[in-house]
Every structure is written in C-alpha cells, then in structure tokens.
C-alpha cells in the first residue's frame, strides 16, 4: 500500500520525535477537548479515561463488596431475623407470615454470589485495574502524547460503562439477576427452567459481558500498539519500566483469551435462544425430556470458559505486580532486583498461563489422563511467580525504605501473594484438588490472591500515582489506617476460611445445617462475617480519602515528589492533553538508577556520563 | 546483559495499522475457538454431514471480486483518480452486500425441503450457523466501515482526499481483505470437513 | 432502628477519623520536619514486626486449634483405600509451603525493619546476582518436581478406571470383581440405584423418564433392570471395591463423599465414574470419634444421644446446581459384609407367605408371592400392559424365593437357639447349624445361578432336617418343617 511516511508525518498523534511540525501548531489545550462533554464525558485523553475507569471501578467495588456483606450475613447468621433488610431488598427477603421472621431468599443468595464474582473479577479487577493504570501510565511512561487511537480508547471505556449499565439493570429484574455462579456453567445457565436466575437475568448477563469483552479488546489493542510503536527516542524495550511490561503482556493475554470467552458466550446464547445444543445432552428438566437437545457437551463450555478464565487471573495479577515493582523500587530507593528476570518471569507467566486452564477442571469428568499435562504446567508456573517474590524481597534488602501508604500496600501485596500463591500449589496438584475442589479452600485461595493481593496492588498504585492523576496527595494518616485495617481484616476474613476448606466444607452453599459434617463452624462463620463487615467499613475511609483529596488534598508542589526516575514524573503537574508542553523527552538510561553514584535517583532522561554503562551494572 | 546504548529511532508499522492487525489477531482467536470446538465435536459421534450448497460458492466468488475491485479502488484513490475510485467503491460495497444476501439465501436453501437442515437439526448445522453467522456479522461490520467511506466519497468532500482519509481507506480495505480471506479459510474448512 | 443508629455511629466515627487525618496532615505541613519521615518509617516498620510475629503465631495456634476438624489430622482419617494418599500429599505440600511461608514472611518484614528509611542514607545500587537468582529458581523447581511426580502417580492410580475384564457383582469377593452402583444427580436430590443380585446396572435413557413411575428412565426391555432397586442411603460392605457410575438428569452436579475423598462431577449425557474401596465402617469411625472431646458432647438434634453416636458419612453435591444445591444430602453407611447382606436382603425384598397347612401336625407351608421383589421394575411395570419382560421373571423370582427359604431355615435355627438354654444340646445344635447355614445363606443371597441356588437350598434343608431328626428332646419350637409348595401361578 501507499506512502506510509506521508501519512505518518501529518498525523497529530504518533510520538515521532523528530516531528518538528509539532512545536508550532501543537497547543495541547486542543481542538477536540473544548466542551465539558468532550473533556470529561467522551474524553479522548488517556489520563481522563484512566480516571473514568478508576472511579467506575470503585463504584462497582462498593456494590460488589456490599453484596458480599449481605451474603456473608446469611452465612454467618443463617437463623437471624433479616426482616429489617426488607425495606432495601424487598421481595428478596422472605418473611414467614406466622413468626414475622425474615430470611434471605436462596435464589437471591445465589444471585448475590454470582454478581459479586462477576462484578469483582471483570468490572473491578480487570477494567478497574488494567483499565485505570494502563491508560494512565502507558503514554506517560513510554513518552507518548496519547494512545495510538484515542477514539478507540474512549470507546473502550464507554463499552465498559454500557456493560455495567446492562448488568446493573439486571439486578432489578423480576426473576432476578443471573444466579449460576460467575462461571456460568451450562446446563444451569443455558436452561431458563433450571432456575429463575437463568431466565432474563442470564440473557442480560451474557449481553453485558459480551460488551465487556469488546471493551477489553479495544483497550488491549490500544495498549499493545502504543507500547510497541509509540515509544519515545531511546526507550528501548529493556528500558521500559516493569509496569509497562506488565501492561503489555496483560494486554496480549487479554487479546488472545477474551475472544475465546466470547466464543463460549456466543454458543451459550445460541443454546438459550436458538434451540441449539452445543452444551446440552440428554436432559430431563421441569417434568420434560428435552428430546431435541442432544449431542452437546457441558464440558466444552468449561474448556472455552477456562481458556479465558485462567489467563484472566493473570490479567488481574500482572498489572498489580507491575505496579508493586515500581512502587517498591522507588520507595526503597533501589533498583528493582533482577529486572531482566522480572521481565522473563512476566513473559513466562504469560505463556504458561495459556497452558494450565484445565486445572480448573480436574473433577469435571474430563479424561483424567489430560490432567497430567495441566498439573505439570501449573506447578511450573509457580517458579516464575516465586522468582518475582524473591526479587521483591531482595529489592527491599539493602534499601532505604520510605514507608507510606503506597509502599505499605506494596509490602502487603507481597505478603498476600506469598500466602495466596502457596495455597495455589495445593490446588494445582490434581490428587489434592480431588478433595479440595469446590470447597472453601479454593475460595480462600482465590480471594487472597485476587480479592486481596490484586487490590493491594491497586491501592498501592492509587496512593502512589494520585499526584500524577490529580496534582494532590491523598491523606497519609487515613491511608495508613486503611492499610493496617485492611491487612489485618483481610487475613481475618480469609485465614479461617482455609480451615473450612480443609474440613471439606463445599462452596456455594446457602446454608450448612443440612449436613452434620458442615454445620460445626458457626463460630468461625460469624467471625468471618464480622471481620468482613469491619474490613468493608475501613474501605469507606479510603473512598472518602480519595474523593476528598481530589478537591482538598495537599497540593503537589514539585513535579517529581517521590524522587522517581520514570518519564511520567517529567510531565507538568495536572498536565493537559498531550502531556508534555514542549517536545517529548528522550530517554538515555534504564528506569532503575536509584542509589547510583551516591545519588538518590537519576531520571531516565539524564544522558549517560562518559564511560557510564547503562542498566544495573557497577 | 546488553542494553541499547545509543537511542534508536522507534518506527515500525504505523500505530493504527498495527492496532488493526492486533484486532485481527483477536478475531482470529474467536474463529480458532469455534473451529477447535468444531473439530473436537466432529470427532465424537452423531455428526450429520450435509453439502455446502451452491450459493456459498457464488458468494465466495462475490467476495473475492469485491476484494479485487476494492483493491483497484484504493489504487485509484492514491493515483487521485477520484471518479474511478467512487465508482469502484460503490461496486465493491454492493458486492459486499450481495455476499451477505447470498449467504442468507444459501441458508434458506438448506432450510428448504430438499435438505431440511435447520439450526438445531444437528451439531454440524449448529456449528455451521455459528461459523457462517459470526463471519457474516464481521462482514456487516466491514460493510459499515465501507459505507462511511462511501458516504464521504459521494459527498465529494475534500476532507476525504487527505492522508488521514487514505489511512482510513487503507484500514478499511485491510479489514475487508481479512474477512475475505477468513471466509476462504472457513469455506475450505467446512468443505474439507464434509 | 438499630441499624440506623449503627449506621450513624459508623458515620460519626468515620468523620472523626477523617478529621484526625486532616489535622495530622496539617500539623505535618506546618512542622515541615524532614526527619519526620524517619520517625514514620520506624513506627510503621515496627508495626510490621509486631504484625509479622502475631500473624505467624496466630497461624500456628489456629492450625493446632483446628486440627480436630482438618481432614487427614486428628480423628479425621480417610475412610477409603486411596484417601490416605490424598491426605499425605496435602500434608507433604503443607510441609514445604509452611517453610516458605514462614521464611519469606520473616524476611519480608524483617528487611522492612532493617532497611527502614533514614535521612541521608542511600539505597544499595545492587540490581542482580546470578548465583542467588539461580539458587532461588532451582530450589522451587526441585520441590515442584517432587510434588508433581508424587501427585501424578497418586492421581493416575486413583483415577484410572478398572480394567476391561473386571466384573461387576453384587458382593465382590474374588480379584477383579467390583460392586457398581449408580448415582444420578437431579434438582435437588440424588437417585441412588443398586444393581441387584445380577450385579449389573441396567440401561436407561432420558426420554423414558416419567415422574414417579420411572424417574431414571430405565429401559425395561433390558433384563438387567429387572432387579435394580433404588435407595435413599448408600450402604457398602467394607473393604470391597466400589465403582460409582455418576450421571445427572438436568444440570451439572457433583458426587462428593468427604470422608472417602470421593469427588467427581455429574454431567448430563456423559456418565462419569469414581472407583474407591471403603476401609472404615461407620461403627468403627463412631468408636474412633467417641474418644474425642468435641464428639462427646450432646448431639445438636437429639439430646439423648452423643454427637459421635449420630455420626454418619454423608453424600453431598459439590457443583452449583440451582437453589437447592446445599440440600442434596444422603447418608452413606459402611458396614460389615454380614450387615451388607442383611441390608441387601431387605432391599431386594420378596415375600413368603406363611400358611399353616395341616392344623393337626401344625406344619407350615410357605408360598412365594410372585412379583414381590422390591425393584422399580417389579413395583411399577411388572404385569402391566407396558411390561416387556413378561414371562422372563421366573429365574429371578426363583432365586429370591430360594433365598427366602434359606433365610427361613436360618431364622428357625436362630429362634431355636434363643429359646434353648445356653450350653444345652438344642443350643449347641442350633448354633452349629447356624454356622453351617451361614455360607449357604450367603450363596442364596447373592448367586445368580439357579443351579447353585437350588443346591444351596437343598443343602440348607438337609441341615435343618438333620437337626430336627437328631434332636434328643421333642422340639417345642414351631415346626422346622417346610413344605415346598407349588409356586406356579
């Protein structure tokens, strides 16, 4: 095709450093950000879009966590009177006409559990984590004015918003939102007659998530193109901060795995709406034999789902890991230990994450022989993860660690990732999973790694980059209370849960009292519920701190308040669209020259001195 | 461990073109998922084979020609032969629409008494609709993109005859060629499987 | 009301804390002391140490506290042959991971303390160390390899299906024999099916399901279905291999017996299986638990009983199947071979009607009631218009009849022994006869071969006759004689 060079020169975006035309007509209070709508609603500035993802993610986190409080009330106090919740939850509370006592409807319990999972895994930890930080940091850290396609970026947010709106609406349906678990296994999810939650609620759930997939793909495409094509002069791949590596691999994972989820959802939708039987075979339900619905396999769905499902959890944790690497290094005033090993670990985790999905399916009835491959790869993936943990600890060793909310959450992240990662080793081994599958051991494991560790990474990033976002600081006292409250609270909630799992108590149980074996843990359940309520309340401090600080936080007075080395701190405070006022800075060294040559930090933009070697030697 | 010591110019593919290729990769993953599931399912029992009726071969011809015509249209645009470009774009767009129509007509033929194949007749027909239908959806997306260029071309607006416009065209046509080649792959795949 | 007050308190507390936060920030800005961060670092790092120590202590203490309920610890042994292997792997992994857990946490918080920030200090410009990195890559790899190999060996052993030539019978005795039962998950109960004395589960198909009449959709033309009966409890003989054939009627379920370490999904349209051998009887487990203080308390449902007395193995569902997912419970009982045979008897049913034939001699006749076998077939289909097995039930009924008759002999001997004085001749004779009858009774109960069944009956009769004829004193118990009457319809 024709002359690329002509086309490129004339573009507004492109990060082409030798583009002298820029200087004169580039005034980055620019033409398509003039009105309120353009600036704040349909913004195409990556920084604003990042904030949109963050705030939307936070709102959903409150909703999702709020749901968990309600169902934890059921689990902790199954016989307590819930009638007082009726004004809020209406028909979802069944009131006994004789005694006046109220209980949470079982249907509703399962809907809450499903929505909680869906909201937190997708809306909060994927969109809210990757969406926020990839958008905020990629152009700033690689030296670009904005993403490859700001329009697509904007669309990525609004598709996320649309997905959220649809799921939100489903909460108010008469038959209720989807209740088949965030994993949505058919036939339960495919047959409306299997459960009320599999009626309209399931249709809206699928629709919402298809739009969500579009959002993720649009975002991911942008992130990859931007990182690979729009780095500033001197920013080679191995001079990129670890955050960028993490975002890049995350985006690649998303690109390759979300379409497979979409394929599963398409097929599920066909089964629900068009009478196909991709996942159905020999079913008798609601008094009727579904004679035309034969030939399918429920296990096929599980393969398609987990082909995304597993990379998904790495999509969640890798950005958090990237953020933590950055925060720890900056606040320890030391290079991240083993930068190259960290990069290769991210790559290894990325590749391996595609080879382990069926460890979620050991008990699914699939041919047990297949499990051999997946056990092998699952336990292999533990190695790069371990390397990263050791590297973080080694980063702290010999450092001069400044402890503030950001770095505390990073330290907390390491603790949580150790704890949660170690329990993964049990589950990866199929013979152990034989017993632990679908018990609270699994629930404890994934909550510690995702529900806590990933969140800690997110919090760490928010506290650290808040000045970059809003030109102000968040309150440190509140931040530290938030940290310690959450650190202790999270272990209080999920620590005991491991013992529940080790006692063989199954997950997704509305009540435990039907079984002798599972009804001995009332005290523990009460404790976990109370811990959950308290920890949830502590998060409100964070929310207040966040919003308050946007308007009244301590103002940022220097461009590089943390003494970091990376490019995002070379752009002015509260930078406008286009980030740098003059030319985009050039990069001459890797991002981890902290404590070198007797200097606390050396920015990436500083040229190498005579005879100085780049990258972690001497 | 070597680092880049002298700053290099970073210029590879144009970012937006790269973005399109990345998007194409994700779409390929979608169809890979479908075709893998197809292959695994076919290996199991109870699989009804049915012929690929003629309409699908006609439609293949149509989409191939549309790709060729649009390629020529692009060349015309670059050579600033805007009248020819407009004409060829119109034809190409029309052929695109014809493709979708032929796909649908092919499906109707399969529904007819001669074959009696419907979406839930057998797993094979369900997968067929899944593959052909999802592809058609992507073609409709391409048609939408073509229409945007077409409307600009009709208006004769000078906004279009810029490098930015050329880029948009390039991206649109690249996408169109993708759905074309994808169809070839799917047709071949389905034909061999029968 | 209480909720509103509670909410208000929380809001007030939050406002209070926020004010403190603001005040402290202001104070810090005003003070503008560069050494302040040093103090903060020290305080936070100190909190970190306190946290780490308390955390590790809590972990150890809580583990010890929960030993009584942790599977594989305390009294919670695995009650199956493969179970201990699963527990062993868990504990092995626990061993390795605990070491890592403790060491890394000490390092993490220890380094945070040791390297807490101080003004004027510089971080060490130390970015990598090949040796160190090798070491901490190799050690985890080695440990993982260990765990993988051990784990896969166990997995393949446990999950492998039985060899092609294995035979399913109602009571496994020889090598290569196993008992196959079927569990079908549905919303929201388990249908549990036993194969009956032929040892074979009959075929079924979902289009044949009819509520109440044929809940599983059994194919009545398949003779194997004739004797299949359904139960609400799973009763298994200890030490015998069992294969559970697991299916589902509507959505996914999961067949889960915790104490046996048995778990596999139930998938509609795709039968799955699990092979296991129960090794601990329910009674034995109860005795074990009776020694634990937690189990010596009163049972929560029946305060006349102790908790350990009410213990039962339980079958649960472990795959979300809808609103009733949490309520799919069935009791699983592991019993001795004797008890199992007794139970099979009850389940199989069949009926002999006692008829006093000749009032003068008082001799007793037993008439066999046709179609009185207790299976789904006999209760719902037998002799109806839909019965495709008309005329084919004779063999089974003969076998059941023979069994019942042998049971009668056994019972009579039992009665005689119980009536007699301990040590007396009658007692001894009856006891001897009972012992001789035991194996014959067993044969009659499980054989599917008419010839051996008839032989067993004849032998049993001979023993009974023998006792009657050699009794030194007149028999005062009801007549042992039974006249085999014509059971033709």
TrEMBL record, chain A:
InterPro entries: Cyt_c_oxase-like_su1_dom, Cyt_c_oxase-like_su1_sf, Cyt_C_Oxase_1, Cyt_c_Oxase_su1_BS. One of its GO terms (biological process) is electron transport coupled proton transport. It comes from the Bacteria. The chain crosses the membrane at residues 53-75, 108-133, 154-173, 202-224, 244-267, 304-324, 336-357, 369-394, 406-428, 440-463, 483-506, 527-551. One of its GO terms (molecular function) is cytochrome-c oxidase activity. Pfam families: COX1. Belongs to the heme-copper respiratory oxidase family. Residues 36-570 form the Cytochrome oxidase subunit I profile domain. One of its GO terms (cellular component) is membrane. It is found in: Membrane. It is an enzyme of class 1 (oxidoreductase). The lineage of its organism: Bacteria, Pseudomonadati, Bacteroidota, Saprospiria, Saprospirales. Its EC number is 1.9.3.1. It is a multi-pass membrane protein. Keywords: Electron transport, Heme, Iron, Membrane, Metal-binding, Oxidoreductase, Respiratory chain, Transmembrane, Transmembrane helix, Transport. The keyword Nucleotide-binding does not apply. This is Cytochrome c oxidase polypeptide I (EC). It comes from uncultured Aureispira sp.
UniProtKB/TrEMBL annotation, chain B:
Pfam families: COX3 (PF00510). PROSITE patterns: COX3. The chain crosses the membrane at residues 18-40, 56-77, 84-107, 127-152, 173-192. Belongs to the cytochrome c oxidase subunit 3 family. One of its GO terms (cellular component) is plasma membrane. Keywords: Membrane, Transmembrane, Transmembrane helix. Residues 17-194 form the Heme-copper oxidase subunit III family profile domain. It comes from uncultured Aureispira sp. InterPro entries: Cyt_c/ubiquinol_Oxase_su3, Cyt_c_oxidase-like_su3, Cyt_c_oxidase_su3-like_sf, Cyt_c_oxidase_su3_a-hlx. GO terms for molecular function: cytochrome-c oxidase activity. GO terms for biological process: aerobic electron transport chain. This is Heme/copper-type cytochrome/quinol oxidase, subunit 3. The keyword Transmembrane helix applies. SUPFAM superfamilies: Cytochrome c oxidase subunit III-like. Gene3D superfamilies: Cytochrome c oxidase, subunit III, four-helix bundle. It is found in: Cell membrane; Membrane. The keyword Amino-acid biosynthesis does not apply. It is a multi-pass membrane protein.
Automatic annotation (TrEMBL), chain C:
Gene3D superfamilies: 1.10.287.90, Cupredoxins - blue copper proteins. Binds a copper A center. One of its GO terms (molecular function) is cytochrome-c oxidase activity. Residues 176-346 form the Cytochrome oxidase subunit II copper A binding domain. PROSITE patterns: COX2_CUA, COX2_TM. Keywords: Copper, Electron transport, Membrane, Metal-binding, Oxidoreductase, Respiratory chain, Translocase, Transmembrane, Transmembrane helix, Transport. It comes from the Bacteria. GO terms for biological process: ATP synthesis coupled electron transport. One of its GO terms (cellular component) is plasma membrane. Pfam families: COX2, COX2_TM. Its cofactor is Cu cation. Subunits I and II form the functional core of the enzyme complex. Electrons originating in cytochrome c are transferred via heme a and Cu(A) to the binuclear center formed by heme a3 and Cu(B). Belongs to the cytochrome c oxidase subunit 2 family. This is Cytochrome c oxidase subunit 2.
């Amino acid at each position: 095709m024709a002359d690329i060079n002509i086309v490129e020169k004339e573009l507004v975006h492109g990060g082409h450093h030798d583009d002298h035309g820029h200087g004169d007509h580039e005034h980055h209070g620019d033409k398509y950000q003039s009105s309120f709508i353009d600036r704040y609603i349909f913004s195409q500035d990556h920084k604003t879009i990042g904030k949109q993802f963050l705030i939307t993610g936070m709102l959903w986190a409150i909703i999702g966590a709020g749901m968990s409080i309600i169902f934890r009330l059921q689990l902790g106090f199954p016989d307590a009177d819930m009638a007082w919740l009726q004004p809020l939850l209406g028909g979802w509370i069944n009131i006994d006409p004789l005694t006046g006592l109220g209980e949470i409807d079982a249907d509703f319990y399962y809907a809450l559990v499903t929505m909680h999972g869906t909201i937190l895994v997708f809306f909060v930890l994927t969109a809210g984590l990757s969406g926020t930080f990839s958008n905020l940091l990629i152009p700033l850290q690689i030296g670009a004015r904005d993403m490859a396609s700001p329009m697509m970026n904007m669309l990525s947010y609004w598709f996320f918003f649309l997905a959220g709106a649809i799921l939100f609406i489903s909460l108010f349906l008469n038959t209720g939102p989807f209740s088949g678990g965030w994993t949505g296994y058919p036939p339960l999810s495919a047959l409306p007659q299997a459960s009320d939650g599999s009626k309209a609620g399931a249709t809206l759930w699928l629709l919402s998530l298809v739009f969500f997939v579009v959002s993720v793909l649009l975002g991911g495409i942008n992130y990859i193109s931007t990182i690979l094509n729009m780095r500033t002069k001197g920013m080679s791949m191995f001079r990129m901060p670890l955050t960028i590596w993490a975002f890049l691999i995350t985006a690649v994972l998303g690109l390759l795995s979300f379409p497979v989820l979409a394929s599963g959802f398409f097929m599920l939708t066909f089964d629900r709406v068009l009478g196909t039987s991709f996942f159905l075979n020999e079913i008798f339900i609601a008094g009727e034999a579904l004679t035309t619905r034969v030939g399918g396999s429920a296990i096929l769905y599980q393969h398609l789902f987990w082909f995304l499902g597993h990379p998904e959890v790495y999509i969640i944790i890798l950005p958090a890991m990237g953020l933590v690497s950055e925060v720890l290094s900056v606040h320890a005033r030391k290079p991240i230990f083993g930068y190259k090993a960290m990069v290769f670990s991210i790559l290894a985790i990325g590749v391996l994450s595609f080879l382990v999905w069926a460890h979620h399916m050991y008990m699914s009835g699939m041919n047990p022989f297949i499990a051999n491959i997946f056990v092998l790869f699952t336990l292999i993936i533990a190695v790069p993860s371990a390397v990263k943990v050791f590297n973080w600890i080694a980063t702290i060793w010999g450092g001069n660690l400044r402890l503030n909310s950001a770095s505390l959450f990073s330290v907390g992240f390491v603790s949580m990732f150790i704890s949660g990662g170690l329990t993964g080793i049990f589950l990866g081994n199929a013979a152990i999973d034989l017993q632990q599958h679908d018990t609270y051991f699994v629930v404890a494991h994934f909550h510690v790694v995702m529900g806590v560790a990933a969140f800690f990474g997110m919090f760490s990033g928010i506290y650290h980059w808040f000045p970059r976002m809003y030109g102000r600081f968040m309150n440190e006292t509140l931040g530290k209370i938030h940290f310690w409250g959450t650190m202790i609270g999270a272990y209080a909630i999920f620590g005991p849960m491991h013992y529940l799992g080790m006692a063989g108590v199954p997950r997704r149980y509305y009540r435990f009292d039907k079984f002798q074996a599972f009804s001995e843990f009332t005290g523990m359940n009460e404790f976990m519920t109370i811990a959950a309520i308290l920890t949830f309340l502590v998060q409100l401090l964070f929310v207040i701190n966040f919003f308050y600080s946007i308007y009244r936080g301590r103002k940022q007075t220097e461009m590089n308040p943390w003494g970091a080395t990376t490019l995002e701190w070379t752009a002015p405070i509260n930078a406008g669209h286009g980030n740098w006022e003059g030319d985009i800075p050039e990069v001459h060294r890797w991002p981890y020259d902290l404590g070198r040559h007797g200097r606390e930090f050396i920015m990436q933009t500083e040229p190498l001195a005579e005879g100085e070697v780049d990258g972690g030697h001497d | 461990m070597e680092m880049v010591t002298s700053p290099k110019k970073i210029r590879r593919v144009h970012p937006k073109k790269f973005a399109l290729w990345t998007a194409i990769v994700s779409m390929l993953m979608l169809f890979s998922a479908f075709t893998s599931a197809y292959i695994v399912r076919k290996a199991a029992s109870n699989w009804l084979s049915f012929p690929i009726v003629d309409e699908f071969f006609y439609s293949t011809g149509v989409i191939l020609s549309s790709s060729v015509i649009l390629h020529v249209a692009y060349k015309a645009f670059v050579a600033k032969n805007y009248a020819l470009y407009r004409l060829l774009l119109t034809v190409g767009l029309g052929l695109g629409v014809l493709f979708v129509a032929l796909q649908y007509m092919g499906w109707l033929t399969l529904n007819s008494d001669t074959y009696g194949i419907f979406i839930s007749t057998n797993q094979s027909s369900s997968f067929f609709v899944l593959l052909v239908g999802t592809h058609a959806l992507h073609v409709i997306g391409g048609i939408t993109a073509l229409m945007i260029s077409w409307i600009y071309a009709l208006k004769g607006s000078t906004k279009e005859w810029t490098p930015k416009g050329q880029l948009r065209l390039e991206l649109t046509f690249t996408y169109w060629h993708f759905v074309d080649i994808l169809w070839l792959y799917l047709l071949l795949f389905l034909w061999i499987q029968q | 009301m209480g909720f509103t007050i509670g909410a208000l308190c929380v809001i007030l507390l939050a406002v209070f804390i926020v004010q403190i936060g603001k005040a402290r920030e202001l104070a810090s800005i005003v003070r503008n002391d560069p050494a302040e961060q040093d103090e903060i670092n020290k305080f936070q790092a100190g909190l970190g140490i306190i946290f780490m120590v308390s955390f590790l202590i809590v972990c150890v203490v809580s583990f010890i506290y929960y030993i009584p309920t942790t599977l594989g610890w305390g009294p919670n042994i695995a009650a199956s042959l493969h179970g201990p292997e699963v527990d062993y792997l868990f504990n092995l992994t626990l061993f390795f991971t605990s070491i890592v857990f403790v060491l890394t946490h000490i390092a993490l918080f220890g380094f945070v303390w040791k390297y807490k920030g101080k003004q004027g200090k510089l971080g060490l410009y130390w970015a990598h160390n090949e040796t160190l990195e090798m070491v901490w890559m190799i050690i985890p790899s080695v440990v993982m390899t260990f765990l993988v190999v051990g784990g896969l060996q166990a997995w393949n052993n446990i999950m492998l299906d039985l060899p092609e030539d294995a035979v399913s019978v109602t009571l496994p005795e020889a090598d290569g024999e196993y008992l196959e039962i079927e569990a079908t998950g549905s919303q929201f109960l388990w249908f549990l099916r036993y194969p009956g004395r032929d040892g074979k589960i009959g075929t079924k198909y979902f289009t044949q399901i009819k509520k109440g009449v044929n809940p599983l959709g059994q194919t009545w033309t398949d003779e194997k279905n004739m004797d299949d009966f359904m139960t609400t409890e799973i009763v298994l003989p200890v030490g015998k291999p069992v294969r559970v054939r697991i299916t589902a009627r509507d959505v996914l379920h999961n067949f889960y017996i915790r104490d046996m370490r048995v778990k596999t999904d139930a998938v509609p349209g795709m039968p799955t299986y699990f092979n296991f051998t129960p090794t601990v009887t329910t009674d034995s487990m109860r005795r074990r638990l009776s020694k634990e203080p937690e189990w010596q308390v009163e049972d929560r449902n029946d305060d006349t009983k102790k908790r350990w007395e009410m213990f039962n193995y339980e079958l649960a569902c472990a795959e979300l199947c809808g609103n009733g997912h949490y309520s799919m419970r069935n009791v699983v009982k592991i019993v001795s071979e004797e008890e199992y045979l007794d139970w099979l008897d009850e389940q199989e049913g069949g009926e002999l009607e006692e008829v006093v034939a000749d009032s003068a001699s008082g001799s007793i006749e037993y008439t066999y009631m046709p179609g009185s076998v207790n299976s789904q077939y006999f209760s719902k289909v037998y002799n109806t218009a839909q019965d495709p097995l008309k005329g084919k039930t004779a063999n089974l009924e003969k076998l059941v009849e023979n069994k019942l008759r042998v049971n009668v002999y056994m019972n009579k001997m039992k009665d005689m022994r119980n009536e007699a004085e301990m040590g007396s001749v009658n007692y001894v004779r009856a006891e001897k006869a009972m012992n001789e009858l035991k194996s014959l009774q067993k044969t009659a109960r499980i054989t599917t071969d008419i010839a051996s069944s008839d032989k067993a009956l004849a032998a049993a009769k001979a023993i009974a006759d023998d006792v009657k004829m050699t009794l030194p004193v007149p028999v005062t118990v009801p007549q042992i004689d039974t006249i085999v009457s014509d059971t033709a319809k």
